Amino acid sequence: MATTLDEDSAEAVYQDARADFLDSLSEDGSASSFDDDDIFYESNEPDDETAEEEVPEGQQPGGRRTATQWKALSDRPVWQSGDETGSLTVLQAAFTMLKLKEDGKIHDGTFDSLCRFISSVLLPAGNLFPPSLHVCTALVGAAQLEDYQHHICINGCHYFGHLPKQQWKQHLTDSCPVCQQARFTSRSGARGNTIIQPRRVHCQLLQTTGSAAHRCREEGHPSNGHQSAWRAD
User: Where is the composition biased (Acidic residues) (predicted)?
Assistant: First the structure.
C-alpha cells in the first residue's frame, strides 16, 4: 500500500521555497518552451503500440502522453487505489520534485531515474506521477511557478503583494507595516554581485488547485480574510 503524505507533511516540502528557484528552470528565468506534440513516456505503462487493452483517459497507445495531455491532468490526484487517493495533485508532485532537485542539486539523469522509480515501484499501477524532468518542467513552467510564490512578513503579520524577481532590487527597503521587519535580506556574492532574498516565502500550490485558481494578489494582514489563500508556518 502506498504511503500517503498528510497536508502538513506535504506542505513542509514547500515552506523553504525560494523565489530564485525560477532561475533553475532556465538561465534567464523564463519558462521553457515545449511543443504540444512532444511525447513523454509514462514509465509504469508498457510501451507497446500493439496492445489491445483499453487506453487510459488522456493517454496515447503505449503509455504515452503529450504535453497538452499532461497539463490537462494537472489537478488530478497523482495516484488512486480503491477508495484511497493521494494527497498531492499531478502539478503539486511536479513542483515538489523540482524543488527537491534544486535543493539537493540532483543531476538530470538521477532525477529522471528517481521519477521512474517512484512511478513504477513505489506508487500503484496506473498512477499519474510525472515520469521525468521534461514532464515536470512542462507541467510547472517558470511563469506559473512564480504565481504560486509570495512573500510574507518574517513574523507572519503581513502578506506582501506579488512582485516579479526583476523588481526586488527596487523594493529592497520594503518593510512590514505592522512590525517594521524588512521584507528582504541582501549580501555580497562571490563575484561581487548583490544577492537579494525574501526573508520568508510561502508557496500556495497546495491550497490553490482546481476551482481555487483565483490566486490572492492583494496586500494585507492575515486577519483580513486571506487565510484561505495562504497559511503561515
Answer: 34-56
